[in-house]
Amino acid sequence: MTKYPLRCRNGSSLVEALAAITLLCIGALAITTTGVASLRLETGADRRSRAAASVSTRLELLHHSGCLSSSGTDSALGVHATWHTAAIDSIQKTIDSVLITDRLAARPVREVIESAAPC
Hints:
The chain is α+β, with helices and mostly antiparallel strands and about 120 residues long. Helices cover about 45% and strands about 30% of the residues. The protein has 1 helix and 4 strands. Strands 1-2-3-4 form a 4-stranded antiparallel β-sheet, covered by helices on one side. The model has no long low-confidence stretch (mean pLDDT about 85).
């Protein structure tokens, strides 16, 4: 017979507790990373949406103003636009260059939109 009989232990060992804490920390880090990525995508989508609405409104106004050559710049909330219009053979051609800057993005995004409409 042994001097110390085996007995059933209730509870967790230190190694099990450390493993559980490690897994919990990895899960919390994954959730945080997902939140940051989601915020970055949401901010970029908001800026692109704002830029699209601005370009759409500007193109509509320029096409309704007749065959006038014009150019200009516009800047609001991280969206910088430069546009040029020219009347060529009774067609109004518009080129709108939009630069979308975002502090969470690695670099700014440039979109160039070309439009043509009859005068």
